[in-house]
Amino acid sequence: MMEKYNVVWTSQSNGSADSMPLGGYDTGCNIWVENNYLYLYVSESGTFDENCTMLKLARLRIWIEDRREIFEKNFIQELHLEEGYINIQAGDEGDKIRFRIWAAVTKPEIHIEYQSDQPHSLRAALENWRYREREVSKNERHQCRDYEFGYPGRVVTYPDVVETREESICFYHRNKNTETAWNHIIQQQQLESVQDKIPNPLHDRTMGGILTMKGMQYSGEYEGIHAGTDFLGYSYETTSAVTNQEIILTLHTKCCGNMEIWKGELAQKAGISAVFEKSVQWWKNYFQKSYIYINKNDEQSSEFRLGKNYQLFRYMLGCNYYGEYPTKFNGGLFTFDEGKTPDFRCWSGGGFTSQNQRLVYWGMLKTGDFESMRVQLDFFKNLTEGAKARVNLHFRQKGAFFYEQGNIFGTCTGAEYGWNRSPEISTGLEDNAWVRLHFSSGLEFALMMLEYSRYTGESIEVYMNYIENILDFYMEYYPLDEEGKLYLFPSTALETFKGDDPHSKNDTVYGCANPMDAVAGIRCVLEGLIDYLKDKEKTKKYRDYLERCPELPIGVGEAGGKVFLPAESYSPKPFNCELPQLYRIFPFSPFGLTEEEREIGRNTYRQPFPTEEMYLGVSWHQNGIFAARLGLIEEAWKYLYEKFDNAPKRFPTFWGPGHDWTPDHNHGGSGIIGLQEMLMQCDKDKIRLFPAWDKNKDVSFKLYAPQNTLVECDLKDGEVTYLHVMPEARKKDIEIQT
């Protein structure tokens, strides 16, 4: 079945925007052939430089020295999806060239295997645009948002080191410890007294690799300009015409105090052979573990295309399965040239916008990608002690919160905290009006941790510090009203609904009260935590917290029925285009909704939204998820077509930029969640199949449910033709709703 989803091109590309993704372990490559040259952009998780820009590590260029034009004949480039590799071939019968490119799955390494019918001279080059010091202009600082909007100093990308050797070339970027964003953020946010609690992942961070080309010799340097950026190339060539050649790129990113140790570790990595068959088997297991096939016997249907793109995007997510850092919502490992240097992306390399980031990972519960999910959960776990120290310093209270625009230090990004802060803004709060007082994403990741346990049955003791302190923060930061209920004021309903003057520096005028996302989030996390802990003595504190929680904000809609409100009190003029009023529907309803809540949700969904932008399907918009959760079949399908239709770029799932960057991973992530919710919803112990599915569309799926449950199901011609549930005891909890 999976071979039907292969991506096949029969012509060369017009640049890196027309590239094909490849990766594994924690690496990602953009691969394309342009003007008879084979190119690879290479990325790895965690490649943050002094400025917290996420650097591309390298660009490789490979060509046939004596027959470059051979690429013009019978060209084929194919992603073999189920096996996880790319094959490129060209030439006439008896005079073909072939490249097989694959990534190891046990270490960060890319293999380029060349084979030809006739002997040819092969050239390979490393092209480095960081061969010189390069100032980051103000219109490029979106790539390092700690320095955007008013930072008074120069921002510089420093040069890499390149060492040519016999049959190999070593290259790396090593951070200058006195010139890092961490140092400047500590000063900006007045964290000097607790800086020992704030992780500094930029200190001694070194990133690079070694390109090994046995049988090839160094042939010199050359200068050039690629996509508007100057570079220095280092070229190698075969010593004679060959019919076989292997080029191996081994990567290494680590904070290491001694360069000789770093080089030794790189050499050790390169010295361990990776096996192609092991990589192939890993990808086969990945796609067999979970799948969704739609109209699999009709390759010309638009629904088949939706299923194909679901699988292609899962492939992109699998490339950073074991990353040091989570897959970035704004391009992941597959950004490409877009008018600036290859290192550029909007919304920063080291910034993690929480409302965007969560959408990349929620879908991994139902695909069973729990190991990869832990990368995102551990990201916050590892930053919790710093967040507690920050809260205690700035607010003189216990607990922890994470900024909506946070970074890899667990602090606020410099742009949002403000280099020219208004004196009215309290120390410790973001100066940026869009996200000030936006704390609720911390609740969502706490819920994700609890759901991880509910699905796997595993202990989440390692995450309890995070979960408990997120809750403690709310209970201490906000006062109780006259009835003894928590009064979340001033606050903000996501970025969208605030107080009478969202531009005010006075938080009591700026803020709304008891926003839906926070109220539903606190209640949901408490319910999940009480269910997880079970023991009455252990849960007493949290049952008391739950007693203090305000009720969900509910009002009367234009049609006269009950509707969910964005907040208890707020200005109806939206500041952004999110729908916080529906956050009880998703994400804060994993234990199910009452029938009354579903009806209120449908009333809310059908009530006209204030702006046209609130109906969008691009990027992080989750209207399709809401529709699926509410059983609105026609609406859910409408948004599914928008999410999983082919992207405007050549590769079908290079969506974007939307609100963020290309490839837009929170576009694909929200699409995955919506499709899963159309097929299967897990409410407490119940597993409801096809709650928002058009029964006229055939589908086969294999998805995971809570309590270590696996559900495989085929729907054909409106009838369930196959249903397999493991463990068998969970079959009684299945409700089929076609």
UniProtKB/TrEMBL annotation:
Pfam families: DUF5703_N. SUPFAM superfamilies: Six-hairpin glycosidases. GO terms for biological process: carbohydrate metabolic process. Residues 8-292 form the DUF5703 domain. This is DUF5703 domain-containing protein. It comes from Fontibacillus phaseoli.
